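Every protein is a chain of amino acids, and every chain bends into a shape of its own. The fold becomes a row of whole numbers, each drawn from a learned catalogue of backbone shapes. The protein below has been through that process, and both of its lines are reproduced in full.
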Amino acid sequence: MALRLIADFDLGKDVLPWLRAQLAASAAAGAGGGGPGVLENNYECLRVLNVERNRNIIYTCKDDKGNVFFGLYDYQTKQNEHLYTFEKDLQVVSCSVNREKTLLATSLVQAAKEGKSNELQPGSKCLTLLVEIHPINNVKVLKAVDSYIWVQFLYPHVESHPQPENHLLLLSEEKYIEQFRIQVVQEDGNRVVIKNSGHLPRERVAEDFVWAQWDMSEQRLYYIDLKKSRSVLKCIQFYADEHFKLMFEAPLDISLSDSGFKLVNFGYSDLQDQEELSKHLTLCVFTNHTGSLCVCYCPNFDSCEQITYSVFYFHKGHSKTFTTTPGSVDSCVTKGITFLNLDYYVAVYLPGHFFHLLNIQHPDLICHSLFLTENSEVIDMLPHSPLQSLSGSLVLDSCSGKLYRALLNQSYLLEFLWNTRLDCERMALLHCVLSCGRDPRRLEAKIIQWISENISACHSFDLIREFIIASSYWSIYPETSNMDKLLPYSSLLTWDTEIPGITLVTEEIPLPLMKVHRFKGYWEKLNSNLEYVKYSKPHLYYNNSVVRREWHNLISEEKTGKRRSTVYVRNILDNAIKVISNLEAKNLEPRLTPLFQEEDNHQQLLIGLMVSELRDHLLRHLQGVEKKKIEQMVLDYVSKLLDLICQILEASWRKHNLHPWALNFNRQASAAEFAVFHIMTRILEATNTLFLPLPPGFHTLHMILGVRCLPLHNLLHYIDHGVLLLTEAAVTRLMKDLDNTEKNEKLKFSIIMRLPPLTGQKICRLWDHPVSSNIISRNHVKRLLQNYNKQPWSSVMDKSSFSVEFLPLNYFIHILTDIESSSPALYAFEGHDNVDAKFVEEAALKHTAMLLGL
């Protein structure tokens, strides 16, 4: 299934055997009421009551006399403990135990049995008790009222030593929240008792609320109160130093006036059955370590025709309201909607009807979230019992008594990626799989295999481009906060295609008003996100526009022979060397593809410029991060871009069983080489749009394959349109390896004529042919005559020194000879000492003879 539920606790496996053993031990000892005394064959009443911050689980059941038994499963030691037995037939509303396991708080109501007398205090509906359980001793009545009460001990962050004072929250159905301060002392050794139990200090935390949620991991209380019929979400943070603060207020555009009273994660009572709960609104708050704040809301729905739910992305400044039809008219909805927190995602699903995996880090484009309807087999594989999302990724199935860790099932999502046919699902699944972050090398290899099989299947986006950007992003994102605002997450800026089965409305929402001015941890990240929404428009995503402009300037200067400061260029090239070294250090396996085997000056300039610009971008916007760490992140990011391209090429070569020595100009190109050439062309197309660098040697390899795979007119068309680049290494190999057949001569001449002048002069020296001699001669003459000052004929002409009776040529060669002899050092042809006036004369005569057909 899309969700992977790993059971951390199971009442049937972790508690029942222990209870049976306790019962057997009690029976063998002839014990009466000293043991648990649980019925041997009737465990339907066994259920989970609460999960504390340290993941200790409190559960309850009844013995054959109806007495209420409280037990605790210690998450660390995997052991069960008997906490307390209440010797009356009552029903438990709520229960909590302090960290030291010395105090138990519980609220109970009369069991629903006909003709049964009231065992509570006269006139009270709910009894709230505080019990000393180390050892079992006094019982104090905190409240005896006609409304339900829920209890929750606070767990401070400091866990190294016992706390002298415990804090207990009481939530009343009468819509107020109190905090009790309970001091304990030790007597007679380890016996813990309540100090001044008759006068426990208390204070009001909140009142007039209609909804509340407890975050056990972060010790936060979220609640909603109604101000002039307007819903306002508030959050209180409880601290270890005995105080609490109101952190923010946020208006919510939802109607709660007639929704009754609801609590989330304050224990798991069976006062209402699940069918009754499904008729009430569903509302929950989700956060994660990146500073996200999401409110998920689904109003009551009685109709089978349409379901609407909203997600308020407060950390992004907007909300999205989704509307979907659960299925056919006959498929009525009998269960409530479920929201689950999956770190970077929120899962929304209705068992048997739909599954929606919402991307909360990048919610702008709907294609980055996965929506599946009941027609998908994924829906049938989701849990059908209602799940309750606790803090983090913990999920409780209160029906079965199981506690899970909910994770995205990477293997299943990969399989689904292979089988789906919709572009929107491909996009969402690609990002979802990459976000899982487990075994990235293996994961990338599988995605690359999928890309190679579906290279032309996507019409809405470029698979290679999206994979390179997304995978590079996830490789560096966890290293520091705010990366989601500074690095591109996707190659797409917009998505206009409808998602089948769902409609969407996006609205801007008021940002939360922070009520404090100094922040730490999560609150600092949330505040940073809110500040970004307020002041950072347009987005701060990095792009290579500056790199593109600077790179073109450097290449233009190179062609004209002008180059700015050598130190500047050297620094740029040093950046490239660092990236390549960083890449090679992380990749110890030998490469099949002949990359990184030449000094590709143009690509090295591009790599170095990207390092420089990206580093400056991050230094501007990442406040408080060490410069050294930023520099390493930049090297890792650019290295990852290049590594992914190398991986795609390596996979293609391996798939088609190619080897470097197979690239022989004298052999016929194989189908495998055509396939690799096609992949390389698609890589080039993907990177050119974003102006991303390529591994040095890529253009040389691409050119060699192009020569082998394409007819001459197609090859020249690719060259003229910049698809194939004439690198010096590729042209050098071509000139040396190809013989001088008529076809090859035409190819060589066509290529030489397209080379830049300086490169052309070097390449011509490698081709022993009259055409190249002619070109060399022309270049030599042009250079000699650039500064020529004409002199009288009589002073320079000596007829006896020329054997050719062709006066124009005699005169011209004499001028060249005179210029060469006057300044030999100045006019020597660089790298080719054999070129002189005599060489020019011979080349001219050969060329004339060719033209005359002699």
